[in-house]
Sequence to fold (534 residues):
Amino acid sequence: MIRFDNVSKRYPGGKDALQAVNLHMEAGSMAFLTGHSGAGKSTLLKLIALLERTTRGQLFLDGENLSRAPKRRVPMVRRKIGMIFQNHRLLFDRTVFDNVALPLVIAGYRHQDIGRRVRAALDKVGLLGQERAFPITLSGGEQQRVGIARAVVNKPRLLLADEPTGNLDPDLSRDIMHLFEQFNQVGVTVLIASHDLDLISRMPYPRLRLEQGRLLNGDGAAAQ
Amino acid sequence: MRLPRPVHNYFARHAQVALNSLGRLYRAPLASLMTVAVIGIALALPAGLYLLTGNLQKLGARWDGGANLSLFLQHSVDLDQARALRQRLAGWPEIDTVHLITPEQALAEFREASGFGQTLDLLDENPLPAVLAIRPDAAHASAHAAAALTERLRALPEVELAQLDLQWVKRFNAIVDMVRRGIWVLAALLGLAVLLIVGNTIRLEIQNRREEIEITKLIGATSGFIRRPFLYTGFWYGLFGALGGALVVQLAFLQLLEPVQRLVGLYQSSFSLDMLSAGEFLALLTGGASLGLLGAWIAVGRHLSAVEPQ
Ligand SMILES: Nc1ncnc2c1ncn2[C@@H]1O[C@H](COP(=O)(O)OP(=O)(O)OP(=O)(O)O)[C@@H](O)[C@H]1O
Ligand SMILES: [Mg+2]
Fold:
């Protein structure tokens, strides 16, 4: 599903955020990405979603060489990925329903299909009753679940989450992680960047450790 | 007729975006109205001038066709002699019609039109001469031929003064033509102003919706998808601005209608003031909407690509 071949990323300022990273994730696997602050976790996820471009090396998603993908491919690549952010990145002037529906609207789904799929996604994250609410009226955990519903609503085969539990208490964090497990169980590939060693050490998934831009055990993730 | 589904879907989505953009304008009525008003004024100015000069041209053409000559006869010429002269001149090939205005008629008309009736009663005798109003034959109505004719008529012993009205009609028409050409320069400048107004409004709109743009890009929106609502916003601004402009022009001309009618009545002319025709109205709307769309297009091209998700 994901393959990094000697990928390096240097930011315009000259900072080498990733150096010669090799990584392989099978379709349907799940892994955690760990490392101290500034190690390059977010950068690695951003490269996959084409929020940043590789400086050197090759990055493949689903067999497509993203390092060579032209600009106009970017939206299509992003539609294949469900992304979840620490700060949720919801639209606060739209209802929960409209937020979750956004990827479908963008992809040009028909009205009837949108309603059905949005409700299915909200049902999965346990927010079916909150369709009409505005995100501002929801708790942090609920907002994060809206973000997850939005990420999964068009059934992507890959979920990327950057610190999805960063602001949540331990109970809520466990719930969120459990949600990710459920998606993985139905075949979705899941990669989660997280600081929360306490939580992830109790879960049976490989950990990819970044240290100052170098991946210590990239191929370990392949065997799951 | 039923459209095939993808096509139907395409139109449905566009209609949806168009309505959403409209709704957004409606939800910020004051700001929208201000922008629309500024665009309306910018469009009303050249449109109104265009209409005004169009009317003046029509007026000029009417006079031009009947390049009139007035022969003011000597006081010593009595009415019989004047009639004889009229008869004689009517026979000239260069002359189409000759109309005799007797001093009495002239006085009556003057009394009627000027409102100096009582003052005129104080006069012992009629100071006005007999006048022959001459309309040259169509073949001799050109400025040059009419001038030559004037010279010949001036030489007649009965004639005190021969006046060709063509001169000032020509000048009038030339001025109107010049003003009309100037309108295009004005229209171009104000069109540019509309582009800038819409462009700036859209730029602010993009700034205000930065977060939304970033998020939609983040989850895979194409630049076309992101661009569309802004283009529709520009389109609506232009369209409503043009509607406002047309309204202003129409109201202004309605105000003019009565005074013009009164003035024209004074000259016993059947001139009627032209308002915006349906074609001109449509052209104004099309022009306004196009300017709005273009302004939005430019702003979107310049500012949207700068918004990239982090
Ligand atoms: N846009 C940028 N321009 C320049 N340098 C950047 C940029 N983004 C990140 N960096 C640098 O790259 C390095 C890796 O950053 P990254 O955000 O990937 O770290 P991280 O592992 O996600 O850290 P954290 O756990 O704090 O989120 C850091 O040193 C950071 O300063
Ligand atoms: Mg980070």
